[in-house]
Amino acid sequence: MALESLQLLKKIQEWHLGIDRKMPWKETLDPYKIWISEVILQQTQVAQGLKYYHRFLAAFPTVQALADASEAEVMKQWEGLGYYRRAKNLHIAAQQIVEKHQGRFPINFEDVLALRGIGDYTASAICSFAYDQPYPAIDSNVERIFSRYFGIELKKSSASLKQAIKQIVGTPFKKVKSAGELNQALIDFGALVCKSKTAHCDHCPLQESCYAYANDQVYNLPIKSAKKSKQERYFHYSILKSENQIWISERRASDIWLGLHEFYLDELATKTDLEESKTRAFQNIVRTKCFRKLYKQELTHRRIFALFTLYELAAVQEIKHGSWVPLEELNSKTFPGVIRLFLDENMHNFIC
DNA sequence: GACGCGTGGGC
DNA sequence: TGCCCAAGCGT
Predict the structure, then answer these.
(1) Which protein residue has its CA closest to C1' of C10?
(2) Which of residues 56-95 of A touch strand C (CB under 7 A)?
(3) Average per-residue pLDDT for chain A
(4) Cβ-based neighbour number of residue A309 at 10 Å
(5) Of A230, A305, A243, A236, which Cα lies nearest the Cα of A265?
(6) CA distance A296 to A339
(7) pLDDT given for residue A253 in this prediction
């Protein structure tokens, strides 16, 4: 028999008393720092985000500092973390805060939710952690706990599952002492006990009343959506070099790697096309160097293959949608993983 | 509601 | 190895 929701929440809070999961953003009530941590942690593991959290706050200690920075500086701090729209949106939201809230992070839930890149989860997390407002922060950890415990057969990440959980916890959430601590307890419980792939049912305090455990459904809940096949894409990059400058452009379309830089790109239809791709006819080519290695980068829904060719040109020439930058400045630009890897391995060869 | 968006780690 | 997943959001 399942516990009443208030009892369930109290059990999880009780469990949390014995947990010591130290993280820097737990040590502060500064909504700015909490905001940055929450955005970094969107779809990102703590171990991966920790370094970026410290670096980002050192570079931009306040909302005002972030708003005043250039987009390029913000992107550079985010390089390697992925989901680059998050960085762009942080920058936009900082400017929203300066314009609409005099640079002070808003306190009202609706005002927080209105900021770019902040959805229901992040607004709830910030308002409960920083201000102790009674909003349940329903992330994938929390979905998993309730879906399993009560046997809610709804799809992971679906609005219906979130709504069902809100129904269950809405009233009890207002009765517990600290909403922030409760949200933290739920997230930690999902991350440490009711885990996705290796749940620790053996020492779970809720085992005896858990629906999924009793019915052997732990790994079937919440319902997973059907996996899509991974599409492959084939990029041939021409690195144009002249007078010790390199031509780069910024990715602007609604595509992967928004806001990151790249070299002159030809996208090809097939892997054979890429492997057999000929050198290109740029003007005034002095020398051509083909790098034979086929680079590969796995994204969640894509597999990128990339080949690189270096062209030394007699003179800098105007090419649309990009600009020439000194070779020494290349490392200060922001590149996707596969280009960064290529540069790290080959940049010393650029000196002809 | 479905899809696209990155990277690193676990098994 | 290949596949799944991780403190989601915007379109």
Answers:
(1) A117
(2) 83, 85, 89
(3) 94
(4) 20
(5) A236
(6) 10
(7) 82
Q: Give every CB contact of residue A116 below 8 A, 6+ residues apart in sequence.
A: A89, A92, A93, A96
Does the CB of A253 sit below 7 A from strand B?
Answer: no
Residue A155 DSSP class: B
d(CA A133, CA A155): 28
Strand ranges, E, within A213-284: 231-242, 245-250, 261-262, 264-268
Interatomic separation, CA of residue A298 and C1' of nucleotide C1, rounded (Å): 13
CATH of the domain at A277: 3.90.79.10
Does the nearest atom of strand C lie within 7 Å of A249's Cβ?
A: no
Task: Assign residue A173 the CATH number of its domain.
Answer: 1.10.340.30
| Cβ of residue A256 lies below 7 Å from strand C | no
Looking at the structure, do residues A184 and A245 belong to the same domain, yes or no? no
> b or e along A92-112 (b: 16 or more beta carbons within 10 Å of the residue's beta carbon)?
bbbbbbbeebeeebbeebebb
* Cβ neighbour number for residue A155 with a 10 Å cutoff: 14
**Tokens 């500086």 identify what position?**
A73
Look up the domain containing A236 and give its range: 231-350
Predicted confidence band of residue A19 (pLDDT cuts 50, 70, 90): very high
Q: Note whether A50 and A184 are same-domain residues.
A: yes
In the annotation, is A250 catalytic?
Answer: no
Q: What is the pLDDT of residue A141?
A: 96
Is residue A279 predicted with pLDDT exceeding 90?
no
* Strand B contacted by A297 CB (< 7 A): yes
Contacts for A347 with CB less than 8 Å, ≥ 6 apart: A330
pLDDT digits (tens, 9 = 90+) for A310-334: 999 999 999 999 999 999 999 999 9
Under 8 Å between Cβ of A261 and A248: yes
